[in-house]
Amino acid sequence: MKIINVAAWLITIGLLLTLIVVGKNFLVPIFMALVVWYLVNALNDQFRKIPLFGKHLPNAFTLGMSLLFIGLALWALGDTIVVTIQGFVVDSQKYIPRIDAQIARVYATFRPDGIPPTIDGLRLDEQLWTYSAALLNGLTNFAKSLLLVLLYALFFLIEQQAFGKKMSALGLDLRESNRLSHTLQEINTAMRTYLGVKTFTSILTAVLSWIVFFFVGVDYAIFWAFLIFLFNYIPTVGSITATLLPGLLALVQFDTLTPFLVIVIGVSAIQVLVGNILEPRLMGDILNISPLVVVISLILWSILWGIVGMLLSVPITVAIIIVCAQFPATRSVAILLSRDGDVKRD
Fold first, then answer.
1. Which residue positions in the chain have pLDDT lower than 70?
2. Segment holding 280, helix H or strand E
3. How far, in Å, CA of 266 to CA of 213, rounded?
4. CA atoms of 346 and 342, how far apart (whole Å)
5. In degrees rounded to 5, what are phi and psi of residue 56?
6. Contact yes or no for 228/206 (Cβ under 8 A)
7. How far apart are the first and last CA of the chain?
8. Do 264 and 243 form a contact (C-beta atoms < 8 A)?
9. DSSP string, 53-89
């Protein structure tokens, strides 16, 4: 019997992985739309608190405002990225001599008898153009799919109005109805808390980092601040990557190590203060995930869905833990994925 159960689990996991890989082009916009849906509802809650002649704004109006606001924000950020990358490609020629000079300095220090390579000799400038073109193409495709994501989010907003009636019409008994309601409520609370807190701390980290970039005078300060905001959603490696990239540019842009050190030390200190002190206090115990599981899920989802998978790895894992904790057959999975083994079941 145990062998049959193991085989059934392996077949189920295999089918799910096949669906995730084969259906990537269809599932990624839907999951991104779910994130936008959560953000729209969180923003809608804030808009609903705004008094108008002693009354609150209508829910339909604030939902439309929220969706429009997030859609315009995504469009503006995408346009900023495209303009910045185009500017960086155009200005790349002025960085090439500086990169050659830095390479020559390193060789003069560690290999005084060696002949330092050059960017032209290594043909890295050609690779830069190739990578930049590929990145711009990817951003163009993302912009095309953005409309689809917003359309899905709109359908989710329409569907949520009738979701309560559908729940009542399912005809579940009291125990099943309570379990389903509890599971959905717990997932909803976890997602809203995670996305709300993460968005706030990401904005705070980006603004403080921009102050450091502005003080140092590094090129494309706004772009690097946005990159920190975006990469802050990626556990562990995101903040490290977003800190090193502007630091490397400062190493090329300036003739001394001081700007590089100021950026690396300053932004790292901000990341530690916000990510390790402020964020856990705001997040509380809502994310009961093992740190090892966070890293493994990050690697797994990055392989399956690329950068989008890295951004969604934590929310997806949280939902899996909550759902698995509700059923005796999968409760052990939730315990293994959790941080302390304490998972709640209705």
1. 1-2, 5-6, 8-9, 52-54, 86, 89-96, 99-103, 105-144, 164, 166-174, 176-177, 284-287, 341-346
2. helix 279-283
3. 9
4. 13
5. -85, 150
6. yes
7. 28
8. yes
9. TTEEPPHHHHHHHHHHHHHHHHHHHHHHHHHHHHHHH
Predicted confidence (pLDDT) per residue in 247-288, tens digit: 888 887 887 778 888 898 999 899 888 887 888 777 766 667
Report in angstroms the alpha-carbon separations of 326 from 176, 222, 335: 11, 44, 11
At residue 199, the 3 state secondary structure works out as helix
To which residue do tokens 């950026």 refer? 263
Helix (H) or strand (E) holding 51: strand 51-52
Residue 234 to residues 74, 109, 239, 244, 245, Cα–Cα distance (Å):
18, 37, 7, 15, 15
Scanning the structure block, which residue is given the tokens 């601040």? 225
Let me know: does 118 contact 107? Beta carbons within 8 Å: no
pLDDT in tens, 119-129: 555 555 555 55
- 27 contacts 21 by C-beta, under 8 angstroms: no
Amino acid identity for residue 121 in this structure = G
Distance CA(144)–CA(122), nearest Å, equals 35
| The pair of three-digit structure tokens given for residue 154, joined into one six-digit string | 């709109």
Q: What percent of the chain has pLDDT over 90?
A: 3
Residues in the chain: 346
Q: What is the pLDDT of residues 149-186, one digit of tens each?
A: 878 888 888 877 777 676 666 666 667 667 777 777 77
Positive or negative CA dihedral for 278, 199, 342, 15? negative
The structure's pTM equals: 0.75
Report which residue type is found at 154: L
Place of tokens 């502007």: 246
Burial state string for 6-34 with b = 16 or more CB within 10 A and e = fewer than 16: eeeeeeeeeeeeeebeeeeeebbbebbbb
Residue linked to tokens 């082009």: 25
Q: Are 226 and 77 spatial neighbours (Cβ–Cβ below 8 Å)?
A: yes
* Token representation of residue 149: 């994501």
- Mutual orientation of helices 24-48 and 2-22 as an angle, nearest 10°? 80
**What is the rounded distance in angstroms from the CA atom of residue 341 to the CA atom of residue 339?**
6
